[in-house]
Structure formats: C-alpha cells, structure tokens
Amino acid sequence: MVHFIKNIYLTNRFFISLASVCVFFVLGYFYPVIGAIAEILLLALSVCLVTDALLLFYPGPGVDATRNLPKRLSNGDPNAISINLQHYYPFEVGFTIIDELPFQFQKRDHNFNDSLAPKKQTKISYKLTPTQRGSYTFGALNIYITSPLELIERRYRFDEEQEVPVYPSFIQMRQFELYAISDRLQDVGIKKIRRIGHTMEFDQIREYVRGDDVRSINWKATARAGDLMVNQYRDERSQQVYSVIDTGRVMKMPFDGLQLLDYAINSSLAISNIALTKHDKAGLITFGDKGCNIVPAQKKRAHLQKIQKALYNVDTDFKESDFNRLLTFMHNRISQRSLILLYTNFQTIESMKRKLPVLQQLASKHLLVNIFFINTELDDLLQSTPKSEEEIYIKTVAEKFNYEKKSIVKMLNQRGIQTILSRPQDLSINTINKYLELKARGFI
C-alpha cells in the first residue's frame, strides 16, 4: 500500500475535472437540478479515477528504462547520453522522463515528454557538456506514465546513483589524432609548414617525383637504377616533449565555463598524443607554490594513459607558483635537451619580468615555448566606440592590457624564447601548429 501511494500522482486534468465538479455543486445550491448533475459527475470522476489506477497498476512489468552512460565523460565537449524506454501496456501511454543530473550542471528541469504506442520502445538522446573534471553522480531516472484517461500518473524509478568520471578532453585528443594519422591536420586549422633544408634522419631512397628538391638527388643510386633517385628524409624521432602546466592563481580565470587551467590540460593531452603519433616522447610536469609533479617522457602509446590520469587530478588555487622551484626541479630531473611547452599566463609586463630570469635559464638548456592567453573579454571593449568619460577610461585600460600582452611577446622573442599568445578556444590548434613548425625546421 505504501509503495502504491508513493508512486501515484494526480494530474492537472484530475484537478481541473474536480474543480469543475465543485462549481456544479456550488451552482446546485441554488439550482437543485444542477446539484443532481454534480453528484453524477462526481461519481463518474471517481469511477474514472479507479479505472485509471487499475489500468496503470495492473499486474506485470509495466515499464523498463535504462540510462546509457559512457565509461567516462570528456571535459569541455558535448557527450552523448541516451535513455532506452520500453513499456508493456496494451494501450498507448503518455510519458514524462525526469533525469536527475549531477549537481555540477545545476539543471533541475531536465525532462522529456511524449507518447508511445502499445508495447513499443523508444530511445531518447541528449548531450551534456561538463566544465569541471572529477566524479559526477547521476541520480534516479524518473518515468511518469499516464493512460488515455490522464487522471493519474504512475512513477517508476531506475538507475539510481550512477557515477561517472570526467576526464580531460579525450574527444578533442582523438579528433586531432585522426587528422594527424590521415595527414589532414590543415583541415582543422593546423598550418602546413614548408620545410627548410633537411632533417638529420635518413629514411629511404625512392624514385624522383616532379617537385622534389633537386638537391636530394642521389647520383650513385641514379647511375645504378637508370632513373632519377632521391634521398628521402624524415623528422627526427624520440625527441622529448614536456607539457609544463602552471597551477597557480593566474590559471584560475574562467572562460566559457572552463578555467584557463582546463584549457591548458586539454591542450597538453592533445599535444602529447600528437607527439606520440610523431614517434616523439611525451611527458608532463605540473607545478605550484609548494612542489612539482612529473610524468617522465616516454615513447610508448600506453604512456598516454599515465598522462591522462595525472591530468585528471590537477587543480589550482589562489597562490602564486614558484618558478625558481620549477627551474631546480627540471635541472635535476631532465638532463636531455627537450621541447618545453610552458602553460602559464602573464597579465602585465611586471609579472613577466619577475619570472624572466628563470625563463632565460630554461631557454638556455631547452627549447622553451611560453604559452599564455589573450583576454577575449576585452575584444568587445576594444572594438566599441566610447560615449562617456567612464567608457573612454575603460577602453583605455583595455588597450593598455592588450598592448602589454603584445609587448610581452616581443620581449620574450628578443631573448630567444618562443611564444604562443592564444585565445583559449584556439589553444590546442595553436600549440600543435607551433610543435609541427619547430619540428619541420629541425629545431627539435
């Protein structure tokens, strides 16, 4: 009985019908004939209500539903989720699905309404875009079923407490990997870099094809084969590529729901995958105010799982990162010259100058690429036309910040430090562009 009461809900149609009967009873106080009609309507409503309950609670399975979740969700990407609904009633039913989403999404009205033919099934799909890494817990899947009378609803509950982790953007990583394998990276904005000279690693001798560099012709092989033959070179392999992520307060700034730290993490995963695809070694370093953590660079494909797990737990706080500690750590742990992709953020020239001695020492031992962000919130201000003194002041400050960002790039480049100044949403593409450029020019 308790189970019956907990799963039965009166619909709006029932309350409208009951209100109409009440109106007839009120009128029946003045007109006895209408009062008799009201009694008949009340009896009919009661019979319909009991009939509706019997229809919905007849013996049998009734409804079966499952929520299909992936083993993990990709942070910052739309993730497909589906609900399979099967009912066994011998009549058409209306249904309302209320899916209890994790609290991180802050959505309490996630529902679907439709009807279903007798003994049929349906599949409902939707997408969720998480903006935080961590564990997400889905609540119950609530199904409310109505018969053609639509006076009451019967509730079914399924899949309570489903937990799924949210990892750094592996969807983005796989997307770039597919383009890299098919040599179509330029289709997603990756620039095709013209090679300057040759790399140092010889690959094979092959027949000359129109357009090949004539300096690559192998005259001895040409004399033996009777056709023009050229030497083919390939990119040097087994170079170390380290993604170094600043977890300090400068990476706390949000953009489109994600923190700058999350953009850096997603980019690190993508570039690590591309580096492994190009037969280089990929590694990871995270640092903050107290210490540094490292995943040593390796060449194995399975190594990507270690990097992904390490990135899953990376978080930031409101403290300033210790760059001197980073310098000492890298000096002790990385002996081979490597490509260092340093993800941080400089808001002013003064903040960059405080860290410049450390950056110069890193650049003297490694190929350092300093990656920081354009403040896209200033774009509208820079393009607007001020109409008051306050707006003039605000635009002037915005132009000052924009100028300082460009000045930082110039100062770093003058000291032999490569830079990437990127919009957060373009970070992965710009980082891969720089990696391929440096590789094509034989810098690594």
From TrEMBL:
TM regions (residue ranges): 12-31
Protein name: DUF58 domain-containing protein
Coiled coil spans: none
Residue ranges annotated for the DUF58 domain, each copy included: 204-371
Pfam families, per the entry: DUF58 (PF01882)
UniProtKB keywords: Membrane, Transmembrane, Transmembrane helix
PANTHER family from the UniProt entry: BLL2464 PROTEIN, SLR2013 PROTEIN
InterPro entries with a match to the protein in the record: DUF58, vWFA_dom_sf
Keyword Membrane listed: yes
